[in-house]
Write a structure and sequence with these properties.
The chain is α+β, with helices and mostly antiparallel strands and about 425 residues long. The protein has three domains: about 220 residues, Alpha-Beta Complex (Lambda Exonuclease, Chain A), CATH 3.90.320; about 45 residues, no CATH class; about 130 residues, no CATH class. Helices cover about 35% and strands about 15% of the residues. It has a seven-stranded mixed sheet with strand order 1-2-11-10-9-8-7, with helices on both faces. It has a four-stranded antiparallel sheet with strand order 4-3-5-6, with no helix packed on it. A hairpin with a 4-residue loop joins strand 1 and strand 2. The longest helix has about 45 residues. The chain is globular. The two termini are about 45 Å apart.
């Protein structure tokens, strides 16, 4: 296991899980339910008063009894009049709470202005960074735009449609007029021949034109290519926003699936025939369980424990801070190890913009996800220890993602002093 040290936290990396030969079916049981650990290890201080819904139907701040899949938001019947589909809601003793710990922490950092950043980045010479989170426009995008634009200049929006589809392609290294190889031409040809692409109409009448000619930027004069580049540059903000939206939606769904799969494993619901358990990120989780959890003598205590804490001297019905801990392990001395699951492309330790730091109780902290996760873990610890007899001895982030060769575990800083100040802010 490889360890890296940084100014803020300790980071450990697992090895390639494909090198292991353990039997996954023997690690986790079957025949259980999502309530298996909750029934075995109740925490009445929270279980008896807190309800959390990923999705639910509401009307006038109240829950509506309506057929709905609370995990996916899929409705079993049309919404009643004046009702709405709500997301991520907490109730304490039946009363709706306003916001979660995660959302309240985010208030002390500058919000990411996607429109402004897309406009700024469109002036950069670079448009693609492999494995990056923001620079996502590679050669495949440019070639598709180029093909669509050359196909019919009279259709100014045709290449925008081509780009929207191109976001689904494999990201490749950026080139301009340096030419492209035969393999890339074949790749582009395959992508542009799909039903979705043909439906845009940008290739109508060009069935017999070799794709290599369409993709060759040197087959036109410099003035024509320069004109295209100006148009493409002008469209970059829109392209970036579309790419970010698609990536965000895909990451959200991937993360939710992974969270639920891990929850099912620890609640004796593993199914070797279920494809959800056979992903890259889940195999990293299995390796994490075998090579990090078990050697430390940890045992699963609770998954997805929803909590609430009143920061007020006198509790108010709608004044609780709420949050859900992904994983609680207990060690041999019954001390708590808090773990938050992440399925992130990158666990950043620096702000995207230089000098972008938090304020208030988060003053001086980098505006990046690891620092926010550290504050979140600190708040969870505060909520747990203030309302129960548990003692927390470890706070960490376990990240599993296809971009990684193995699991990543980050031991976050203990920010209890900052979290005390944060609770004081919540009480105002």
């Amino acid at each position: 296991m490889q360890c890296d040290n940084d100014i803020a936290q300790r980071i450990e990396w697992g090895g390639d899980p494909s090198a292991n030969n353990y039997d996954i079916s023997k690690l986790f049981g079957s025949g259980g339910s999502l309530e298996t650990l909750a029934r075995a290890n109740p925490v009445p201080e929270f279980d008896d008063i807190v309800e959390f819904y990923e999705y639910l139907v509401m009307k006038d701040s109240r829950k509506v009894d309506h057929p709905i899949d609370h995990d996916t938001g899929e409705l079993g019947a049309p919404l009643p009049p004046d009702a709405e589909l709500a997301e991520h809601r907490y109730f304490v003793r039946g009363t709706l709470q306003h916001g979660s710990a995660t959302g309240k922490i985010a208030d002390f950092f500058e919000k990411f202005d996607s429109d402004a950043e897309a406009a700024r980045m469109s002036g950069d010479n670079r448009t693609f960074i492999e494995g990056g989170k923001y620079y996502l426009l590679g050669i495949a995008d440019a070639v598709c735009a180029w093909v669509a634009w050359r196909t019919d200049i009279a259709k100014p929006l045709a290449y925008v449609e081509a780009l929207a589809f191109a976001f689904k392609m494999t990201r490749l290294v950026w080139h301009t007029k340096s030419g492209i190889g035969a393999d890339l031409v074949k790749h582009i040809e395959e992508q542009l021949s799909t039903p979705e692409m043909l439906a845009t109409g940008v290739l109508d009448g060009l069935e017999n034109v070799p794709m290599a000619i369409l993709c060759d930027s040197s087959a036109c004069d410099d003035a024509m290519f320069e004109k295209f580049c100006k148009l493409y540059r002008a469209m970059l903000p829109t392209c970036y926003l579309a790419a970010w939206k698609e990536n965000s939606d895909a990451a959200l769904e991937q993360g939710r699936t992974m969270h639920r799969s891990i929850e099912m494993c620890y609640n004796s619901m593993y199914d070797p025939n279920d494809k959800r358990f056979d992903t890259v990120e889940m195999h990293q989780f299995y390796d994490f369980h075998v090579n990090w959890v078990l050697p430390r003598g940890l045992r699963p205590f609770r998954t997805e424990l929803s909590m609430a804490h009143s920061p007020h001297a006198v509790a108010r019905d709608d004044g609780y801070v709420c949050g859900t801990i992904d994983m609680l392990y207990l060690d041999e001395r019954d001390q708590v190890w808090l773990i938050d699951w992440k399925c992130s492309r990158e666990l950043s330790q620096r702000s995207f913009k230089k000098g972008d730091v938090g304020h208030g109780p988060c003053e001086g902290l980098q505006n990046c996800n690891i620092e926010k996760y550290a504050m979140q873990a600190g708040v969870y610890e505060k909520m747990l220890t203030a309302n129960t007899e548990f003692r927390v001895v470890y706070r960490g982030i376990a990240c599993f993602h296809p971009n990684q060769t193995g699991f990543q575990i980050v031991t976050v800083i203990d920010y209890q002093d900052r979290c005390e100040k944060l609770m004081a802010y919540f009480a105002q």
